[in-house]
UniProtKB/TrEMBL annotation:
Cross-referenced InterPro entries: Amidohydro-rel, GlcNAc_6-P_deAcase, Metal-dep_hydrolase_composite, Metal_Hydrolase
Family: Belongs to the metallo-dependent hydrolases superfamily. NagA family.
Natural source organism: Roseateles paludis
Database matches in Pfam families: Amidohydro_1 (PF01979)
Keywords: Carbohydrate metabolism, Hydrolase, Metal-binding
Name recorded for this polypeptide: N-acetylglucosamine-6-phosphate deacetylase
Annotated CDD domains: NagA
GO molecular function, one term: N-acetylglucosamine-6-phosphate deacetylase activity
Residue stretches making up the Amidohydrolase-related domain: 48-368
EC number: 3.5.1.25
C-alpha cells in the first residue's frame, strides 16, 4: 500500500489528505474537503489526474514513425511532464510504413514500459485526408476502405481515426468504423458546414486539432469550424498559443462542452532549438514553434504541463484546465477509470507546485523520475 499526501482535485472538488494506492489503482482517499482557494496553500503540492494526450507524434528527439524504441523515448519524455496515458499518432505515409509503425506500436499497447506513459492505442492521422488540407502531412493520401482499416486495426488497436468526410465513400464509412470501436474525428478536411453536420449525424465523434487544416468559420459559409462550434460534443485543441489565438480558444471552450487539449507534439518536444524529423520530413524548432522549411506549422514542441499552464494563463480556473487535459479526453475515449481521482481508478497522478510546475508523477501506481528541468 502506498500513501501520498497532497491537496487532491477529485470529482467532488478539492480534498486535503492521503491517497491510498494498491496494485496500480486508487483504493481510497483519506481526506477532508477544502475550498479551491486553499488548494496548494502552505507549500502543499496540488494533485491532479494524470494528463491524457490523444494526439502526439514524438518527443525527446524521436518520432513515433521510427518504431518501438522511438515510442518508448517519447512515452518517457511525456511522462516526465505529467502525461500518464497517450495515443501513439501516425503521420500520413506509404501504407507499408504505416503498417510497420503499427506493428512496432503493438507491444507498447499491450504492456506499459516502466517509467513511461501508458500507450492506450493508436491515433491514425491519415492517410484518409483531403490533399487540399494536408497542413504538415506528406502527400501519401489514400481513399479509405473498411477492409484496410480492419487490417490495420488488427495490427495495433486504433482508438481514433482522422477522416476527411467529403471524399468519395468516406461519409458511409463513419458508422462501420464506430462499430469497430474507433472514434472518427473530422480533420484535414475541405468539407463545408453541411457535410460536417452530416458526418456528426453519421457518428463522427469529434474534430482533429480544431481550427487547423479545415474550412474556417465565415458568417455566410460556416465551414467545419462552424459545424464544430454549433454541434460538436468533443473536439481537440492545441493550446500552444501558436496554432490557435486565445480568443478563438475561448470561443471554442465556451461552445463545445467536451473540448479537450492535445499537444500534437513532434520529436522537438523537450528538446533545444534545432532540426528534427516529423514522419521523415525535416522540421525546425525555433522560437517555440515547429515548422517545415516553407514555414508551415508542423505540430508543436508542447508538453501537457505547459498546455495546462497556458489554459490557466488565458483565464481558465485550474479545475477546468485540469479537466481539459485529462478527464474529458478519458470520457471521449470511453475510459471511466482514467482521468479522475477516485476509488477504483488507475493511480495516474501529477503533483504540481504553486507555479504549476511538475514535481511528482505517478503512472499506474509507479512513481516516475522527474528531472529538475522537466
Amino acid at each position: 500500500m502506498t500513501l501520498l499526501d497532497a491537496d487532491w482535485l477529485t470529482p467532488s472538488g478539492w480534498q486535503r489528505g492521503h491517497l491510498h494506492l494498491q496494485d496500480g489503482r486508487i483504493v481510497a482517499l483519506d481526506a477532508q474537503p477544502i475550498a479551491a482557494s486553499e488548494a496548494g496553500s502552505g507549500g502543499r503540492l496540488r494533485g491532479l489526474p494524470g494528463f491524457i494526450d490523444t494526439h502526439v507524434h514524438g518527443g525527446g528527439g524521436r518520432d513515433s514513425m521510427e518504431g518501438a524504441e522511438a515510442l518508448d523515448v517519447m512515452a518517457r519524455l511525456h511522462a516526465r511532464h505529467g502525461t500518464t496515458a497517450l495515443l501513439a499518432t501516425t503521420m500520413t505515409a506509404p501504407l507499408a510504413e504505416i503498417e510497420a509503425a503499427l506493428r512496432a506500436f503493438a507491444p507498447a499497447c499491450a504492456a506499459r514500459r516502466p517509467g513511461a506513459a501508458r500507450v492506450l492505442g493508436v491515433h491514425l492521422e491519415g492517410p484518409y485526408l483531403n490533399p487540399e488540407r494536408l497542413g504538415a502531412q506528406p502527400d501519401h493520401i489514400l481513399p479509405a476502405a473498411l477492409a484496410e482499416v480492419q487490417r490495420l486495426h488488427a495490427l495495433a488497436p486504433i482508438r481514433v481515426l482522422t477522416l476527411a468526410p467529403e471524399l468519395p465513400g468516406h461519409l458511409a464509412l463513419i458508422g462501420p468504423l464506430r462499430d469497430l470501436g474507433i472514434r472518427v474525428q473530422i480533420g484535414h478536411s475541405n468539407a463545408d458546414y453541411d457535410t460536417g453536420c452530416a458526418a456528426l449525424a453519421a457518428g463522427a465523434a469529434g474534430f482533429t486539432h480544431l481550427f487547423n487544416a479545415m474550412t474556417p468559420l465565415h458568417h455566410r459559409a460556416p465551414g467545419l469550424v462552424g459545424a464544430a462550434l454549433a454541434h460538436a460534443q468533443h473536439a481537440e485543441l492545441i493550446p500552444d498559443l501558436l496554432h490557435v489565438h486565445p480568443g478563438a480558444m475561448r470561443a471554442a471552450l465556451r461552445a463545445i462542452p467536451g473540448l479537450f487539449c492535445v499537444t500534437d507534439a513532434t520529436a522537438a518536444a523537450g528538446m533545444p532549438e534545432g532540426d528534427y524529423q516529423l514522419g521523415g520530413q525535416p522540421v525546425r524548432l525555433c522560437q517555440g514553434g515547429v515548422r517545415l522549411p516553407d514555414g508551415t506549422l508542423a505540430g508543436s514542441a508542447l508538453t501537457m504541463d505547459q498546455a495546462l499552464r497556458h489554459l490557466v494563463q488565458i483565464g481558465l480556473p485550474l479545475e477546468d484546465a485540469a479537466r481539459r487535459v485529462s478527464t474529458l479526453a478519458a470520457e471521449f475515449l470511453g475510459l471511466p477509470d482514467r482521468g479522475r481521482i477516485a476509488a477504483g481508478a488507475w493511480a495516474d497522478l501529477v503533483l504540481l507546485d504553486e507555479a504549476l510546475q511538475v514535481r511528482r508523477v505517478v503512472v499506474e501506481g509507479e512513481e516516475v523520475h522527474v528531472h529538475p528541468d522537466a
